[in-house]
């Protein structure tokens, strides 16, 4: 099982849209067995699949339960091959609890829990909150690859330095195999700011950048209201074609 | 100086829109001297006044500098009587630094810093991140009143219990005068869900609710793109009239 963290400290850069659509495309188009982990207390990835709830266990229990049984937390989506570990606001309290619990390791809870299902899935995609907290650190420790969705605007580079430092600390201390696979330009619009911003991004050497960018279309917003993955909602729109192409680019490297 | 924290653990409930417009109305309509504190690393309140920057000190320095001089951090907006302490992504690192610094009190840094300007302002409005972290706890410790913007939807009550617990802990341990003034219904639409949700909210006794709600209009979204307070952008729209009415309701109580 290959584990990919989708992360950016900025909000509003299409993290959840990217995580849910990449997971859906890997499952439905490429026939991979995919586990999507919602690691944001806002629970938007869970809502996208109609699985946000307070009646069932969630990623909070993954964080706090010793010898957790993932089968009791994993929920099935309506798509074959695509399962989900949901999140809700209880994650906030779980994170505080983990910080106070010094009786067992705090940073390796995702890693240990996910190990128990590593033969059942080909890919695990973790959708992270725009934050550095104990559950995002757990995600980085459990991951092989990191993808950073980035929207080209005046403030696009906010927080990238902080994120990179955190990635490097995690790599050094807890997960030497962690790889920053690259930035994925999202919400791309045909204008000078986007064109120049993307060109500049590709010339710098600090952060790798994927060739494929994701175009901004209203269909994406509509698809979140319809809680339907973009290739089901509007297969011919720019963003659907871009996500399909992006997954191919990712898999080919 | 009366200090008001605008807070909700949920994102997307119009916290920043409420904080900036309430601050602007207090300053411009009611002629109060107002200090707005941006306490969210996303810096959206700072962006609303064109004051988001990495070249000038921000709320991060307020958190980490001993005997901080607020005059060096406070920025003037284009509106008379309305000043701002801006925020940017450096707040994330500042929060981590505060957590590790056990040489001075961690939770009272806002309170101590704001005391130095309490004769210069009538109101201090703090726009908080959708989180409980050391800088939101600092805001609660420094505040007299708490306002909770709330959007009536399926998940409106997510996190309210956690927030209330945090408010009560802060009150007990660090700030006995803290008052949960009430929930402010935002993004109100004329439909059955909103009508019934608001009615239910007003019948429960756990959380007080203001009479005035803020109607959802496209003008609000437009005003954020135009980075112009709503009563300047479109004084006659529903939301502008509602914010004016809300501030009157708040002041009359």
From TrEMBL, chains A, B:
<dbReference type="InterPro" id="IPR050678">
    <property type="entry name" value="DNA_Partitioning_ATPase"/>
</dbReference>
<dbReference type="Pfam" id="PF13614">
    <property type="entry name" value="AAA_31"/>
</dbReference>
<protein>
    <submittedName>
        <fullName>Chromosome partitioning protein</fullName>
    </submittedName>
</protein>
<dbReference type="InterPro" id="IPR027417">
    <property type="entry name" value="P-loop_NTPase"/>
</dbReference>
<dbReference type="InterPro" id="IPR025669">
    <property type="entry name" value="AAA_dom"/>
</dbReference>
<feature type="domain" description="AAA">
    <location>
        <begin position="1"/>
        <end position="178"/>
    </location>
</feature>
């Amino acid at each position: 099982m290959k584990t990919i963290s989708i992360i950016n400290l900025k909000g509003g850069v299409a993290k959840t849209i990217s995580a849910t659509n990449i997971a859906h495309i890997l499952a439905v188009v490429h026939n991979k067995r995919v586990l999507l982990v919602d690691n944001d207390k806002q629970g938007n990835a869970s809502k996208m699949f109609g699985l946000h709830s307070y009646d069932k266990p969630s990623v909070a229990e993954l964080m706090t339960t010793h010898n957790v049984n993932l089968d009791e937390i994993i929920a099935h989506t309506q798509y074959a091959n695509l399962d989900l570990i949901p999140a809700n606001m209880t994650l906030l309290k779980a994170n505080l609890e983990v910080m106070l619990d010094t009786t067992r390791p705090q940073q390796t809870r995702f890693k240990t829990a996910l190990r128990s299902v590593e033969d059942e899935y080909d890919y695990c995609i973790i959708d992270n909150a725009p934050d550095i907290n104990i559950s995002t650190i757990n995600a980085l420790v459990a991951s092989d690859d990191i993808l950073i969705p980035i929207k080209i605007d005046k403030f696009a580079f906010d927080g990238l330095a902080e994120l990179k430092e955190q990635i490097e600390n995690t790599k050094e201390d807890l997960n030497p195999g962690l790889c920053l696979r690259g930035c994925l330009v999202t919400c791309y619009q045909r204008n000078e700011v986007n064109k120049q911003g993307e060109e500049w991004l590709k010339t710098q050497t600090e952060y790798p950048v994927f060739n494929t960018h994701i175009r901004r279309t209203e269909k994406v917003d509509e698809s979140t209201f319809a809680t339907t993955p973009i290739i089901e909602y509007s297969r011919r729109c720019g963003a659907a074609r871009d996500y399909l192409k992006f997954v191919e680019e990712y898999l080919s490297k």
